[in-house]
Each structure stands twice: as C-alpha cells, then as structure tokens.
Amino acid sequence: MSNDADSRGTSPSRGLRLARGVSPWLAPTAAAAAVTTALAARRPRWALAAVPLTALTGAMLWFFRDPERRPGTGRLLSPADGVVQSIDPWPDGRTRVAIFMSPLDVHVNRAPAAGTVTSVEYVPGGFLPAFNKDSDKNERVVWHFDTALGDLELVQIAGAVARRIVPYVAAGAKVAQAERIGLIRFGSRVDVYLPEGVEPAVTVGQRTKAGVTRIDRG
C-alpha cells in the first residue's frame, strides 16, 4: 500500500497543507498580490488591485486546503467532503451515492476502500452545475478499484466552476483506505457505486467527510 501520510491512523499535523495540483491557479494569483502590495506601499492607487488580489489569494488558500485526517472505520468511507445529493438504485444491482462538493468544502478526494486501481478513465463532457440532473454528462474521471468487496467504481464530476480534475495515482497503483487519490478544483460532485448487496449508511442531505464518514451499512 502507499505510504501516504494519512493512509493509516496518524494524528493531524499542524500548519496549513495545500492540495497537490493547485500551483497553476494559486501561484500567479499570489505573485500578483505580492507585487501589487509592494507597489501600493509607494503608490497608494495600487491598493485598488492589491486588496482584491490579496483577498482572492486568501480564499484560494482556504479552498485548496488539504488537512491530515484520522481515517474512520468501515468497509467503505466517503470519498469526498460534502452533502449527499442523491442515493439511487442502479439497474445492475449497485447503489449510486452522489456527494455534492460546494466551493467551501475540501476538494481532495480519497479512496473509499483499500485495493488496486484497475483503471482511471478521463471522459470529456460539459460543465453544468453539479446539482443539475444532467451533470452526469459533464467532464469526469471514472475510477475502478479492485477491493475486498469486488470492483468498486468512483466518478469525479466537474461542475460549472470546477473545470479541472487532477488524478494523483494511476492504474496499477495500490491504495490504502482514505488515501488521497485526486483533486477537483473548486468543488463539484463525486459518485460512488456501492456493490450489489451493500446498503448505504448515509441519507440524502447528510454531510460527509472524506476518509472519515462510513457510507456502507453492515
């Protein structure tokens, strides 16, 4: 299994940890904030640019936080922070649990169970708001894991604001339960398909925490 720092019961570390894959967004914004702040010290009119850029940098630091977590217990843990948007029976006997991630949630997704990544497939699509019923057709990354429960499917779905999904691991990688597997910038939706015979332990409207909240009953 991976040696990811939070893959087993480690204590949360101090300080702010940022998610991998955020530098293309954060670095230019932070640099612009620093430059305009320095210019504002000499010419106050630059404050008109420095203030909003500094505020945006602070907001992005919050959006892209990646806290250490002590994993929960259970066969399947939530892959995402957010709110359970829907729980739907699937024609093949599985149950889809859709979790909506708002821009205020942590955007790093985690493996629901330990296993081997058997496939990571990028699927192009649109960018409808994640709460729209047709967001299933949005740009997405489809994951399959070989786990003790059999094949487990997880789908990261981009939304109207989140237009970039960043996988952290590739097919063939072994992952621990609650290990970080990828990032959806600015939020969106994550669907996990519970294998046939596995009942959900969450309800619509319930808040979940990635790598902590148990989503299966049994």
Structure description:
- The chain is 17% helix and 30% strand.
- It has helices at residues 23-42, 47-63, and strands at 82-89, 95-101, 108-110, 115-123, 140-147, 150-157, 165-167, 174-175, 180-184, 188-194, 199-200, 207-208, 216-217.
- It has an eight-stranded antiparallel β-sheet with strand order 8-4-5-6-10-2-1-12, with no helix packed on it. Strands 3-9-7 form a three-stranded antiparallel β-sheet, with no helix packed on it. Strands 11-13 form a two-stranded antiparallel sheet.
- Strand 1 and strand 2 (95-101) form a beta hairpin.
- The two termini are 25 Å apart.
- Residues 1-13 have low confidence and may be disordered.
Outline of the structure:
The chain has 218 residues and is α+β, with helices and mostly antiparallel strands. The protein has helices at residues 23-42, 47-63, and strands at residues 82-89, 95-101, 108-110, 115-123, 140-147, 150-157, 165-167, 174-175, 180-184, 188-194, 199-200, 207-208, 216-217. The relative contact order is 0.23.
Helices and strands in order:
Elements: H1 23-42, H2 47-63, E1 82-89, E2 95-101, E3 108-110, E4 115-123, E5 140-147, E6 150-157, E7 165-167, E8 174-175, E9 180-184, E10 188-194, E11 199-200, E12 207-208, E13 216-217
Antiparallel strand pairs: 1-2, 1-12, 2-10, 3-9, 4-5, 4-8, 5-6, 6-10, 7-9, 11-13
Helix pairs in contact: 1-2
Q: Which characteristics define this entry?
A:
2 domains, 218 residues, 30% strand, Glucose Permease (Domain IIA), single chain
